[in-house]
Amino acid sequence: METAMETKISHGxxxxxxxxxxxxxxxxxxxxxxxxxxxxxxxxxxxxxxLGSLPIPVLASHDQSEVVGKVLTARAxxxxxxxxxxxxxxxxxxxxxxxxxxxxxxxxxxxxxxEWSVGFNMRPNGSKIETIDGMSVRVIEDLDWVEASTVIRxxxxxxxxISAKAAEKDAIPGHDTSTSEDTWDSGEMxxxxxxxxxxxxxxxxxxxxxxxKDEDTKSAYKFPHHNVSTDGxxxxxxxxxxxxxxxxxxxxxxxxxxxxxxxTGVYKHVAGHLEDADLEPAELDKAxxxxxxxxxxxxxxxxxxxxxxxxxxxxxxxxxxxxxKKEFES
Length: 330
Known about the structure:
The protein is α+β, with helices and mostly antiparallel strands. The protein contains 6 helices and 16 strands. The protein has 2 domains: 6-165, no CATH class; 179-329, no CATH class. Strands 1-7-10-4-5-6-2-11 form an 8-stranded mixed beta sheet.
């Protein structure tokens, strides 16, 4: 006899909207190592044998006729402070080419739907019964993950949508903070940040995070521009650090090794700090933004193109000289 697919629902809040173009959503879609409202515990390793089968569909309310997206990647994430609780972190892409996909993304991004569910089939010998605090509990150790769904009401605690954003839009949004005219030593400031610092701390320091790296590691971030105390506390935005970031965006030190789509976002972040300090930020020279990018040829003769390339070279030289002077003076 065929066994019906099971579902486990998760709920939470605190949706963070960055961009809606590509329909990328990050969420904790299941909580593990804790008894859920169905009286089950899902082991932290229960999804491991399913991860090689990604992508799998994202549905609306487990309706198999309503495919709204797909799960791109997933991993188990340990709880903070040594907690036994683990959560299943999933990166999903809604199908923005369909009405259903756009509506599903809008509901999540707008915080109208705040809960998630996973649908799965049990594998043979994939569970066992244990007695915990005098209660019989099914412990699920191995399952066949079939889909993830947006839902209205949940069973699994401690979960939430993390962010809804577009692909290649990973400039960190600007924020209000004090500013400082202290000398700037990027290497020293970064060294002071704990290697155990998590994303919510690191995003206070930097203006860009690489989406292909673990956001809870320093190596995922670029464009540091805040002062850091000797005990690792992130403080005011450093004016020289912000100016240095704009110089790099404009081609200094080899230019900014980030996607073109993120350059403006990084610029707005650091330029905002300078404006808070009543300073006029240097303009963003988009021709210089991507390393190795030459300006488009001006219409007309080869001489026009040669002049354009010469202007680019001179601009880069001026920026490098200015950067060297700043580093020497600091």
